[in-house]
Specification:
Elements (H helix, E strand, L loop, with lengths): L5 H8 L6 E2 L5 E3 L4 E5 L12 E5 L6 E2 L3 H22 L3 H9 L10 E7 L8 E7 L7 E5 L2 E5 L12 E6 H12 L22 E2 L4 E5 L3 E8 L1
Parallel strand pairs: 2-5
Antiparallel strand pairs: 1-2, 3-4, 6-7, 6-13, 7-10, 8-9, 10-12, 11-12
Helix pairs in contact: 2-3
Length: 226
């Protein structure tokens, strides 16, 4: 597909028919993004090159007069995103509250374990979560001088399966739980996790505060609840 031909123009025109309606049925203009990718091979010839076409257009409709008009949509998008994270954290009640928009009662507490990053630029930061393992010899808990840690079952075995930590930054999880308890349709934006310079290929932290990396980088500190 060429980005200048009729076929592309026909494909692009479909996005002009996408509308967002408020509770009164009035079309509101919201930001979106459209991406098209063209792949070329040796058989395509020298005139056709691989490329990416992208834009961030506004949908048809009136511009929102204030944040309250788009508050409900914003809450749905944010809640849906963090609901999937709560599922991975084995927090089904929190995930359900976020997915269905049913406020989480104060008497139901979200309980987890806070883990501290022990090295790198994130040393000292805490994430609430746990670990996944592909099976085999799992690390064993130990407690020494009031601190929790892991003890490998066989220190001589080098091909042991590695466990992977998954969690969410403690402060961001606190905001997410507060949003799940709120009864107002409008919610302030959840704080994004500040970017971190590259330090290890197997360790990643996204803007939503979720972290994924080898268990060796994390040390469980205490049980927390929100």
């Amino acid at each position: 597909m060429n980005f200048n031909n009729k076929e592309f123009a026909t494909w692009r025109s479909q996005f002009g028919r996408v509308t967002f309606l408020d509770s009164l049925g009035t079309p509101l203009s919201v930001k979106g993004h459209i991406v098209a990718t063209r792949f070329a091979t040796e058989e395509s010839g020298s005139r056709l090159q691989s490329g990416i076409w992208a834009e961030d257009p506004l949908s048809p409709g009136e511009r929102a007069a204030g944040p309250d008009q788009l508050g409900a949509l914003g809450r749905v998008v944010i809640s849906s995103h963090y609901s999937s994270i709560a599922e991975k954290l084995s927090q089904p009640v929190l995930a359900n509250a976020l997915a269905n928009g049913v406020p989480l009662p104060d008497e139901l507490r979200v309980v987890g374990v806070a883990w501290r990053v022990i090295a790198g630029p994130l040393a000292g930061r805490r994430f609430v979560g746990g670990y996944f393992s592909s099976g085999g010899d799992l690390p064993a808990w130990r407690e020494r001088n009031g601190k929790l840690g892991f003890e490998r079952p066989d220190f001589l075995r080098l091909n042991r399966p590695n466990a992977t930590f998954f969690g969410i930054e403690e402060g961001i999880l606190k905001q997410v739980v507060a949003m799940a308890r709120a009864r107002e349709p409008f919610v302030q934006q959840i704080s994004g996790f500040e970017p971190v310079d590259f330090f290890y290929s197997g360790f990643s932290v996204l803007r939503d505060g979720s972290a994924l990396g080898p268990l060796d980088w994390f040390l469980p500190e205490e049980q927390v609840e929100f």
